[in-house]
Amino acid sequence: MDAALAKRIAVQDAEALEMLGVTFVPVKQKPQDQHSNLLPSAATTNLEQTPERARKQVLLDEIRVRYETDQPHQHFSTDHTNIVFGDGDPCARLVFVGEAPGAEEDKAGVPFVGRSGELLSKMIVAMGLSRETVYICNVLKVRPPNNATPTPEQAKLSAPYLYDQLRVIKPEAIVTLGLSATQLLLERTDSMRDMRAKWWDFPPPDGIHAPDGFDTPIPVMPTYHPAFLLRQNTKENKSKVWSDLKLVMSKLGLQQPAKAR
Ligand code: URA
Questions:
Q1: Ligand 1: nearest atom to the Cα of 139
Q2: 118 CA distance to ligand 1 centroid (A)?
Q3: What domains can you pick out in the chain, each with its CATH number?
Q4: What is d(CA 23, CA 126) in angstroms, rounded to the nearest whole number?
Q5: Tens of pLDDT along 101-140?
Q6: Distances (CA, A) of 84 to 23, 38, 110, 175, 219
Q7: Which parts of the chain have pLDDT scores under 50?
Q8: pTM for the whole structure
Q9: How far away, in angstroms, is 51 Cα from ligand 1 center?
Q10: How far apart are CA 133 and CA 92, in angstroms?
């Protein structure tokens, strides 16, 4: 790696950690992963094209086509140009589930590329991962008018496609970003304060709407949505999110960042 690139990466890592209010040095990454973190939306894939990855990509494409055909969003009002289905590695060990695309995501057809996405990318980098090695999607696949929070009815119409995505990817853990995704997957109506920082199962053992076809439940870690962190940018909130993400790192056996000297 040349010195200029190494310097840009070091600066970006420092910014990511500062943004999260973390006084740690980040986990070392493989050089090919670092590239993709610099420009997440323009990242070219460095992942090996294994038969399993190709098989899962085909299945995800099929779900996307089914969504495009069914257009479940025809039953509610939207303000969308593009369908924002999902982005990342079909074999990801970790899936992030957000709420709904915003204006930038609608334009690009890619989840989390606006301001919240920038922060999410930094959170992913701070965990020692890259956007291309995780999978990112939303409860709603189209932009609601005025960035409104999805209603339970809208979430319910879109949920089967999200469940199918999770069934194909079968990640080792899911991070739900904010209330919509958390309440949908856990089938609970509690506050984020009560649900975050704990592991839950998807599908929930007592779920009424939970889908079948998941042989073993997937651990879910709810945490605050990056948009909430941008709105309420306090050290306390940032360290809560970071502590949730550290639980995820432990679950996946990822190296915890060493304390800065
Ligand atoms: N907020 C979300 O929940 N999802 C996006 O894709 C962008 C912003």
A1: 3
A2: 11
A3: 3-259 (3.40.470.10)
A4: 11
A5: 999 999 999 999 999 999 999 999 999 999 999 999 999 9
A6: 35, 22, 5, 18, 25
A7: 23-44, 261
A8: 0.86
A9: 30
A10: 6
